[in-house]
Design brief:
The complex is a heterodimer. By secondary structure, chain A is mainly α. Chain A contains 10 helices and 5 strands; from the N terminus they run ααααααββαββαααβ. In chain A, strand 3 and strand 4 form a beta hairpin. Chain B is about 40% helix and about 20% strand. The chains are: A mainly alpha, B alpha/beta.
């Protein structure tokens, strides 16, 4: 048997997609246990709050199925489990809190070791034409709209207090995740901030963001509202630089 | 072009693990070096890089990887090597080590150190991959004997002869894991002392000492227990033949207080000193 054939058969045996008959059963049992154990440990580490929320049994059942259906391909285990929130969304269509907790777990984990970015403060807010200014955000910033109160649940689980029951979020609400200094952070957003951040991340100018705010505010209040949003983003260390669009 | 070997280094160290990061950063611990798992620091940014920078301010660092996949018929992942190379530029390590094993094929990564048959074909594959990795990294690799749970009927040579040929053909160096020798030899019904026969001891740069556990059918290289007496005795028997090499305690699970590991390291120092006196 060529080395390539041997290695393909070995992998099939380790992952359980083929019988172990070609190899010594005692030894193969060790490798198969190691394989599954490594992946399960990685899933439990990456989705710790989701596991607390679902309970060990339900979580392990879901993770087991994920392992059956998803081949690890990256050199780093940190990349494994990336699609787990999507699988949970499919598995729990009426309980968005489950997949949203998993998204929060996974995104915070990626923010932990994501690219560094130095945020500017208000003193660096200088522009000739504010209408055409675009924002460059720290590379770890991610956001999503939420259908549940998963943020409050995650926070309670992290604080080791009784989490609230799952309830539906108001329409358009969301959460943003980023790393401030060395620590991953998150903040809830109302529908207005969510829409504006969505635009800004897509490359919209400050002028276009102000235009979007007209959906919620009268013209006279737009400048103050936009300034408030910008202040919040600067204060949280989300903005790396301004760019003239 | 001959690969550049790391300069000789003699000392006693520990594998640096998460529960002890703060201890190592806050105070100078009585070690000559630490070994870190390379992949834990091959990240884009954030706290892991801050930690390795602060550790490096106090200690010499050896980079020990588990994912180079050197024995696979797949080529070594160039993106992986570039990340490792960037980390090496940051850390200026004593050396870079990985394992004489494979982790996957056709893009599947089992995240485990899988065994190779000791054949000419496996040697050719390994030599090609090690040579490529050494070219990219610009230095000779230090490669470790893994614990194995399967022996292949196709094997044409002993593990020691296989390692010797690998060193000869690539210029690589060896990291001898004494626990792995004991585990593999026991699992395959071999005498651990005989395992060493034919090994080019002059190529050994580092020694790992660790513990194992008894599985259902075999010894398992769990690295979750103190170095057991049979491993200490094996180390004592061949320490005098090794000369001065870097020696460390490797614990990956059930991590005890740092003082426990430092006590184990002191035992290694005493054994090495005794071996040196006997050899003199």
């Amino acid at each position: 048997m060529s080395l390539g054939d041997l290695q393909r058969r070995f992998i099939a045996s380790v992952s359980g997609t083929a019988a172990r008959g070609a190899f010594d059963a005692r030894g193969m049992r060790v490798y198969a246990n190691n394989y599954r154990g490594q992946l399960m440990t990685a899933m439990r580490d990456a989705y710790a709050k989701t596991r607390l929320w679902l309970g060990d049994e339900a979580f392990d059942r879901a993770a087991d199925r994920y392992i059956d259906e998803h081949v690890p391909s990256s050199w780093t285990l940190d990349a494994y489990g990336h699609d787990f929130p999507d699988m949970l969304e499919h598995d729990y269509p009426d309980d968005p809190d489950v997949s949203e907790l998993a998204w929060l777990d996974g995104t915070l984990r990626h923010a932990f070791s994501g690219h560094d970015g130095v945020a500017i403060d208000a003193g660096a807010l200088v522009a000739d034409d504010w209408d055409r200014v675009e924002f460059v955000f720290v590379p770890t910033l991610r956001f999503r709209r939420m259908r549940s109160n998963a943020v409050a649940i995650w926070k309670a689980l992290a604080d080791e207090i009784m989490p609230p029951g799952a309830v539906q979020a108001s329409a358009g609400e969301g959460v943003r995740v980023w790393r401030g200094g060395l620590s991953p952070r998150f903040a809830s957003m109302d529908a207005r901030e969510c829409a504006c951040l969505d635009l800004a991340l897509a490359g919209a100018t400050f002028g276009e963001i102000c235009e979007r705010l007209r959906q919620w505010h009268a013209s006279a209040a737009i400048a103050a509202e936009a300034g408030g949003l910008l202040n919040a983003w600067l204060g949280d260390g989300l903005v790396m630089s301004l760019r003239q669009g | 072009m001959p690969v550049q070997s790391p300069p000789a280094f003699h000392g006693f160290g520990l594998g640096l693990r998460v529960p002890h990061y703060a201890d190592f950063i806050a105070t100078q611990q009585p070690v000559d070096f630490v070994e870190v798992i390379s992949e834990n620091f091959m990240v884009d940014g954030g706290r892991p890089l801050d930690i390795i920078d602060r550790v490096r301010e106090r200690y010499r660092v050896a980079l020990h990887g588990v994912s180079m996949n050197l024995g696979s018929v797949d080529e070594v992942d160039i993106a992986y090597l570039r990340r490792l190379s960037a980390l090496a530029r940051r850390v200026d390590p004593l050396w870079i080590s990985d394992h004489v094993s494979w982790t996957g094929v056709d893009g599947f990564n089992a995240h485990d150190l899988l065994p190779l048959p000791y054949t000419e074909e496996a040697l050719d594959v390994l030599v090609a991959n090690v040579s490529m990795a050494q070219d990219v990294l610009g230095r000779a690799l230090v490669l470790e004997n893994p614990s194995t749970y399967i022996a292949f009927a196709d094997s044409m040579m002993t593990e020691a002869v296989f390692l010797s040929a690998l060193c000869e053909r690539t210029g690589c160096l060896l990291l001898l894991d004494v626990n792995n020798i004991y585990v593999s030899a026991t699992n395959h019904g071999l005498d651990p002392d005989e395992w060493l026969e034919g090994l080019p001891l002059e190529r050994v740069r580092q020694v790992h000492l660790a513990g194992h556990s008894q599985g259902r059918d075999m010894l398992i290289d769990t690295h979750d227990a103190p170095v057991p007496d049979p491993v200490w005795r094996l180390y004592a028997r061949f320490a005098s033949r090794l000369g001065h090499v870097a020696t460390m305690i490797e614990r990956d699970d059930h991590i005890p207080p740092l003082t426990d590991l430092l006590a184990e390291l002191q035992q290694a120092r005493l054994i090495a000193a005794s071996a040196a006196r006997q050899a003199a």
